[in-house]
Write a structure and sequence with these properties.
Elements: E1 6-11, H1 15-30, E2 35-41, E3 52-55, E4 58-61, E5 67-68, H2 72-80, E6 87-91, E7 95-99, E8 102-105, E9 110-111, E10 114-115, H3 118-123, H4 129-136, H5 152-160, H6 162-177, H7 186-189, H8 191-200, H9 203-210, H10 220-225, E11 226-232, H11 237-246, E12 252-254, E13 258-264, E14 267-272, E15 277-280, E16 282-285, H12 292-295, E17 310-321, E18 333-336, E19 344-349, H13 350-353, E20 362-369, H14 382-394, E21 405-416, H15 422-436, E22 440-442, H16 452-472, H17 475-480
Helix pairs in contact: 1-11, 1-16, 2-16, 5-6, 8-9
Length: about 475
């Protein structure tokens, strides 16, 4: 490292850390900043939960399979690294909720389970007449008046009642975070709903105001075919490989772990598990939250991560000939209400949702298991998990043969839970780091958003903070950026 050069170390090579390293190097090159970036990943591969299996024409995602198109940071990054021609949209289709042994069509016009159109909600078989009347109180109920955070469950039950929450809102929101909505933080997960209630009182009326109308010129083809999710035709792992290829040579260290970080004057000494010592001017920690207290044992405000829960989940991908599915349902999948006698929490008919994923003549199903209080299923053998999934599917679909192949993917303690008060705890942690260990930042799925675009957004924002912090304290950087 040159005398006037500053070194930034990124700990953790998931999509957040990988994006942070990419944008740091990009900014340094474009603005001629004397910054060296090193990315350290404890495992032998980058990408974290993003993993793709390519087999016999199938594209199988072990982790996330897509992201919302309206969150543009991921699409922007895909194009930047040369994969723009591989961008694919999901096929929009019917989706369902499994309640008490029956599939019910998701009401049209619902946003995260909240109705924005009255007629589909009234006609839906998801709710009893009493449940529908209770939900309509959203139009007249006052604002909650609660200052600060509250649980998603408390917030939505107050506005719509138990039936709508349990049969529609909970299956959708729990599927995103694999969490208990009666413990999950409103402000950390969906602050927009808190804002809508404060500004509009009624969530239904507020969502009508803030949700853009569908274009009047939309053709049937556009409206029926192009969905709201985006992926990469060759699998999301292609994005990981493309970003890695853009990084400067010899700036990534795999299969090595940071054991501790010690402040040395205005710099930081990082000790690796291979006894190597790295001196850094700034550090981005993008690991899972469980490792933060160990890396920063003297910062009291980050010790809450020791008690921050995380859940375990698994997903099962199964391939069949189309002929094996006698009851072919028009749609792309379903989520499961707690009022159903199911172990799975959701099932995606991947071959219908993502046409690129499956060869002609085959079906690809992806089932999900594991939820708070019912995580023992994740510890079962592959055969046991597969049997549970097939037994549950047999209640909905007539499958006449065993799958041609299966993949069981476990994610143990991998789903961070933003419980009530998470935002306040994070604010205190970030404030303490700025005071006691300036130049050290937290970014990633454990901290401020779990989706792929959310993680990329955190990376971009943190890179700006790093460069700004280094420029304030380094005349060479200020001169170089002019």
């Amino acid at each position: 490292m040159k005398n006037n050069q500053k070194r930034v170390v990124v700990i953790g090579g998931g999509i957040t850390g990988l994006s942070a390293a990419y944008y740091l190097q990009k900014e340094a090159k474009e603005k001629n900043l004397p910054i060296e970036t090193i990315l350290i990943e404890a495992s032998s591969r980058l990408g974290g939960k993003i993993q793709t299996i390519s087999k016999d024409g199938f594209i199988i995602e072990k982790g996330p399979d897509s992201f919302l198109a309206r969150k543009v940071s991921a699409t922007k990054l895909i194009r930047e690294v040369g994969l723009g021609d591989q961008i694919v949209h999901n096929s929009a289709g019917k989706s369902y909720v499994q309640v008490r042994g029956k599939l019910h069509r998701m009401p049209e016009g619902s946003f995260m389970g909240i109705p924005t159109q009255v007629t589909p909600f009234i006609l839906s078989g998801l709710f009893s007449p009493i449940g529908k009347v209770r939900a309509s109180l959203d139009f007249v109920l006052p604002r909650s008046g609660i200052e600060g955070d509250q649980s998603l469950g408390h917030f939505f039950r107050r506005r719509f009642g138990n039936e709508v929450v349990e049969n529609l809102i909970e299956p959708l929101l729990s599927g995103i975070y694999a969490g208990d909505i009666d413990k999950m933080s409103l402000l950390a997960t969906f602050p927009m709903f808190d804002k809508i209630e404060r500004e509009h009182r009624s969530l239904v009326l507020g969502l009508r105001t803030v949700t853009p109308p569908k274009p009047k010129t939309q053709t049937p083809k556009e409206g029926s075919k192009k969905g709201i999710f985006i992926s990469v035709g060759t699998g999301l792992q292609s994005l990981v490989h493309a970003i890695e290829e853009k990084l400067e040579p010899n700036t990534v260290k795999k299969s090595v772990k940071v054991e501790k970080i010690v402040k040395k004057g205005e710099q930081y000494e990082l000790t690796l598990n291979n006894d190597e010592i790295i001196i850094a001017d700034s550090v981005i920690i993008s690991t899972q939250h469980q490792s933060v207290p160990h890396l920063l044992p003297d910062i009291e405000e980050v010790q809450f991560f020791n008690d921050m829960p995380s859940t375990s989940v698994a997903n099962v991908s199964m391939a069949f000939p189309l002929s094996a599915i006698e009851k072919d349902i028009d749609g792309t999948g379903f989520v499961v209400s707690r009022n159903s006698d199911y172990t799975i929490t959701a099932c995606t008919w991947t071959h219908k949702k993502w046409e690129h994923s499956t060869p002609e003549g085959y079906a690809l199903l992806r089932c999900y298991v594991g939820k708070p209080g019912h995580e023992a299923i994740v510890e079962q053998t592959d055969d046991e998990i597969i049997k549970v999934c097939l037994d549950d599917l047999s209640k909905t679909m007539n499958i006449t043969s065993k799958p041609e192949f299966t993949y069981v993917n476990r994610w143990k303690d991998a789903m961070p839970q933003y419980i009530v008060g998470h935002v306040d705890r994070m604010n205190k942690a970030n404030s303490a780091l700025a005071t006691k260990m300036p130049g050290i930042y937290l970014a990633g799925g454990s901290f401020n958003g779990i989706g792929v675009p959310d993680c990329i957004d955190q990376a971009v924002a943190t890179v700006a903070k790093v460069i700004d912090g280094l420029q304030v304290n380094n005349k060479e950087l200020q001169e170089a950026s002019r």
